[in-house]
Amino acid sequence: MTLTPAPRLPLTDGATIPQLGYGLYKVPAADARELALSAIDVGYRHLDTAAFYANEREVGEAVREAPVPRDELFVTTKVWKDDNGYDSTLRAFDDSMTRLGLERLDLYLIHWPVPSTDRYVDTWRAMIRLQAEGRVRSIGVANFHAHHVERLVAETGVTPVINQVELHPWLPQTELRSFHASRGILTEAWSPLARGRVLDDPTLARIAARHGRTPAQVVLRWHVQLGNVVIPKASSPERIRANLDVFGFALDADDLAAIAALETGERTGRDPEFD
């Protein structure tokens, strides 16, 4: 049975994005097509891939084969940090689109700013061009701190519609989310379950038992109630389905306060400032 698709959140450029999507980081290419089709079959309308994930071709196959109109599906990919720069970004986009086999992309992201190479503003200028040419609907960033975003805006006048960052109960990114909200930028969470490590916390177990849900569903519901876009990865149809089934319950104020107390600042990935 198909679940109710996630609600769509507005982007400042007039587009909308499904709030909960299927993340394909570390999904092997051999499995990506079938898992993406499974996600679409149960109700997902948002697929998140990247050049670095090496599964764009299979994601594109799933989009083309799915019994769902293309305009109902939202596809994200990203330019890898080695391709930061103006001309290299344009080439990387062409390569991604060839692999995806799509005429137009819904969202293109700068995967990492890599301040040490100082090319992310040039990358952004290339993405602005791609958007102006109608090849991509929306453009945004990933793993940017607030000052990286401020520099993009100061030098180009164009604000990203979204910033995809590591975000989970240990690392709720409160200040960054506030910065985003003040500028109309959506926050998107990768590693939303802290690569599964946060799920053993007894606080989450207690909340999950009270709601008749799993700890993973509790954390994903927490993301939804914060207003985040969230893209959990899963490697089985059962987990894919369970991750989308978070719109039939709500956390109360006590639940949210208990989850807020889990903050430690711990990352599971690198700090973008030093990458």
Automatic annotation (TrEMBL):
Pfam families hit by this protein: Aldo_ket_red
Catalytic residues identified in the record: 53
Sequence positions that bind substrate: 111
Glycoprotein recorded as keyword: no
InterPro entries in UniProt: AKR, Aldo/ket_reductase_CS, NAD(P)_OxRdtase_dom_sf, NADP_OxRdtase_dom
Keyword line: NADP, Oxidoreductase
Source species, domain of life: Bacteria
Descriptive protein name: Aldo/keto reductase
